[in-house]
Amino acid sequence: MIFCGNPGLQYLAHKAEIDEAISRVLESGWYVLGEEVKSFEAEFATYVQADHGVGVGSGTDALRMAIEACGLEPGDEVITVSHTAVATVAAIEQAGATPVLVDIEPGFFSMDPERVAAAISARTKAIVPVHIYGQTVDLDPILAIAEKHGLRVIEDCAQAHGATYKGARLGSRGDLGCFSFYPTKNLGALGDGGMVVTSNPELASRVRLLREYGWEERFVSHVPGGNSRLDELQSAVLRVKLRYLDQDNQARSQIAALYNSGLASCKVVTPAAREEATHVYHQYVLRTAQRDALKDHLRESGIAAQVHYPRPVHLQPAYQGRLTVGSGLSETEAAAREILSLPIYPGLSAADAETIIEAVQAFAGCDEGGAPR
Ligand SMILES: *Cc1c(COP(=O)(O)O)cnc(C)c1O
Question: How far is the C-alpha of 242 from the C-alpha of 187, rounded, in Å?
């Protein structure tokens, strides 16, 4: 079976360096928030063109603390999308704010700036654009809306490590950028991890307080904080993998290019890529009205295609009927019925990609030869 991700392959590809990093930490005797974390924070912040990085326990915690650092009060509204990982919306609620959901641009599956403008209220305090599947949201209009209304922008970059928009790395244009290092992300740890990046020193130090009991120095709590720390082992491993991130993203792009040309004349919609941006293909997402049948057909051919995500957040049992909807969500609901993610990860062989292309072609009906678009 070919699965959608394969994080074990990346360990094997860099085994000697990762093993060395792990031994170094084991022998150091220092396991939480030490020199490895500090170095990784600096290296990752530099990579995404931000001044500060704060390592935390997960991508969800990164979002929650980034929102908390903006000083929101109960009833304050945060505009985001329903077409995302549940974590995005969960983090807004955990931070004590009210999520307001808007629809997506169907071509790119990302937050529609016009819907954002229409959803602004007197209680709106922040916008959380989600760079879904490894491709940027159309950021400029969203940043302009935020500037006009004095709102914070917190980028959810959990699927977009290394992607760019008009030459800038995602995570560097908003007030804060939030990353996850869950094992299957483009930069993945051997467990959980996350980071908040920002070039605002005040926001950086607030997140730093929040991640560890409100401490600036040990044992003195300046604000009521919790515990969401990044550990030394994960940081040491992530430092190795960060050195290969561009190469790994390149490998994902090459697989996407094979799919694009192999499926160009098939009756499926291949993913569009924005101009003036780089797509890092966290997922390669097709669109077809026969989604469920195609998924079953692929499974019978040994290919475990998945749906990201089958149910928008506003239709999840935990949220249904109680979330504030800031626009119609018909594009979100239509996408959830029609999207299918093909396997894509560094190390997926050209032969496997060919097997996948042939299986889709056999189902979807293509013109001879599959002329590249
Ligand atoms: C993975 C993900 C998160 C959450 O990250 P965790 O590290 O799993 O907590 C948040 N938002 C998006 C868009 C994600 O894909």
Answer: 7
Which residue CA neighbors atom 5 of ligand 1 most closely?
A: 59
Q: Is the CB of 234 under 6 A from ligand 1?
A: no
Q: Is 111 helix (H, G, I), strand (E, B) or coil?
A: strand
Domain ranges of the chain: 8-102+110-242, 245-364
| Atom 6 in ligand 1: residue holding the nearest Cα | 59
> For residue 373, what is the DSSP state?
-
CATH architecture entry for 245-364: Alpha-Beta Complex (3.90)
Tokens of 336: 């959830």
CB of 84 closer than 6 angstroms to any ligand 1 atom: yes
CATH number of 8-102+110-242: 3.40.640.10
Q: What is the largest CA-CA distance in the chain?
A: 70
- Give the tens place of pLDDT for each residue, 145-188: 999 999 999 999 999 999 999 999 999 999 999 999 999 999 99
Q: Is 60 close to ligand 1, i.e. is its CB under 6 Å away?
A: yes
Ligand 1 mean position, distance from CA 84 (Å): 9
Query: Which residue's CA lies nearest to atom 2 of ligand 1?
Result: 158
How many angstroms is it from 17 CA to the middle of ligand 1?
A: 26
pTM: 0.97
Q: 8-102+110-242 and 245-364 share one CATH topology?
A: no
Place 373 in a pLDDT band, splitting at 50, 70 and 90.
very low
232-246 pLDDT tens trace: 999 999 999 999 999
* 209 contact partners, CB below 8 Å, separation of at least 6: 215, 216, 222, 223, 225
